[in-house]
Design a protein that fits this description.
Radius of gyration: 18 Å
Bound molecules: flavin mononucleotide
Distance between the termini: 35 Å
Number of domains: 1
Largest sheet: 4 strands, antiparallel
Strand order of the largest sheet: 1-2-4-3
CATH superfamily: NADH Oxidase
CATH topology: NADH Oxidase
CATH architecture: 3-Layer(aba) Sandwich
Helix content: 40-55%
Strand content: 5-15%
Number of helices: 8
Structural class: alpha+beta
Order of helices and strands: HHEHHHEHEHEH
């Protein structure tokens, strides 16, 4: 696929078919993605690939925690109050999503959205990204983000869908208990991976981007 079409064509996919992703394809995506840049080439990221029974177990335990309303305890601090321009962009996103879901007769309330996330959007594969807890979280997260974006683009280029989801790692102690080698790690995001349900309203609502001139300061 032409490179700009990959960047512009990728979108967050929040409804998947149950078709398994072949392990060889997941490996190919991660193999390409690992060429991401990192601080002094440290590549201080880890990824856990959950499929099959391991994925089902995580889904069940995560869903149970959501249903008990366990308090979220993300490993990384989240912004409490966003600048007005940023929250306006979120509001525009939510409005567009609600209009499309509403027109299709699907629920738009936050509880329904959380329930879909608790089901991992039906994805047959979940990638969980983390790094050693001795690392300064800012640049370790930055490096992981480059790796994650490469994963999302490489997956899209191969006809697969992804969604970066912080919500799905909001009980990191659960991950540290279930995932091998996860003690002493901090989790940054998860990524759902699979074949998109093409016509789903969750996968087709319009998203926008800020005008370039809102973000760029040209200095010459
Ligand atoms: C760090 C991060 C965390 C995210 N967490 C969630 C999440 O918990 N649930 C969700 O549905 N989408 C999540 N997203 C996806 C964003 O909502 C999405 O990228 C944004 O709305 C832009 O839409 P697009 O990816 O379709 O271009 C997350 C994205 C990032 C980068």
């Amino acid at each position: 696929m032409e490179f700009d079409s990959v960047i512009r064509g990728r979108r967050s996919i929040r409804a998947y078919t149950n078709e398994a992703v072949p392990e060889g394809l997941i490996r190919e995506i991660l193999d390409a993605a690992r060429w991401a840049p990192s601080w002094r080439n440290t590549q201080a990221w880890n990824v856990w690939v959950l499929t099959g029974e391991a994925l089902q177990r995580y889904r069940d335990e995560f869903r149970a925690a959501v249903e008990r309303d366990d308090p979220a305890a993300l490993d990384l601090p989240a912004t409490a109050e966003w600048p007005q321009a940023c929250s306006a962009r979120t509001a525009a996103l939510m409005k567009s999503r609600a209009a499309t879901l509403d027109a299709a007769g699907e629920p738009t309330d936050p509880a329904a959205a959380l329930a879909r996330m608790a089901d991992l959007f039906g994805a047959p594969c979940l990638l969980v990204f983390g790094f050693d807890d001795c690392l300064a979280e800012a640049y370790a997260s930055f490096d992981s983000g480059s790796f994650v974006q490469n994963v999302c683009l490489a997956a899209y280029d191969r006809g697969l869908g992804t969604c970066i989801v912080a919500t799905v790692i909001r009980y990191p102690d659960l991950l540290r208990r279930l995932l091998p080698g996860a003690e002493g790690k901090r989790f940054v995001v998860s990524v759902t991976l699979g074949s998109p349900v093409a016509e789903s309203p969750a996968n087709t609502f319009a998203r926008s981007r800020a005008d370039l001139d809102e973000l760029v300061t040209w200095v010459s």
